[in-house]
Design brief:
254 residues; mainly beta; Porin; 12-stranded antiparallel barrel
Amino acid sequence: MLRPVLAAFLIAMIAAGRASADDAATVSIATDRPAVTDSSVVVPLGSVQDENGFEDAVSQGQRSLDGPEMLLRFGVASKTELRLTAPDYYSQAGGIAGFGDLAVGMKRQLGPTPGGFDASLVLTLSLPTGATGISSRGYDPSAQLPWSRALSSNWTAAGMLSVYCPTVQRRRDTTGETTFLLDRQLTKMWDAFVEYAGDFPEQGGPRHLLHFGAACKLTPHHQLDLHAGLSFSSAATDNFIGIGYSFRFQAVRR
């Protein structure tokens, strides 16, 4: 199943080779991590962005680890990217371990708008490739609408409206999610954020999360991040902490 998916991404990247890569060299990296809220912009045309991380979480007294949280983003048009989410490896103390599901998707940038808003539409389909006990065993679609707006030279507000349709015990559990984030540019290299995320599933109670993080742009195309979160609802993970590294390079030039 993986070969046709990877072949489609390769063909798309080759097709993008007719376009210029001049803009990519001057555009600073903008990642979909570590916040729950995705970036409201796409990666530059002809470039590849690799976002990775590891997370240590505690839920109801059980500790779990997962990684590498790999998201590959391919710029195939001036406002369109293709996306490949590689399977994560999950390990729970005294419990199950194995790889999760592969996901493919696309992001289309809708902004900037006259009001100064950036926004994008993200469509994703998760494929049942993971291990028993970890995979949902279903084809699970989702849609996200991330947005952002600069409030000043140092402050940015952002958020995201999402709908997920995961398979839980062979049934769809349609879940709405809303996030709101404030980001502060601390120095030329460092910025920090605080974020709220709320999930509202059809089955079970809502899940509320308070999330903090910081990112350091080592260069315009390389970023390190740290983040931590805690829940204030019994249905969510108790707390987690994570670290990540992302980079971008120009894969196709004229």
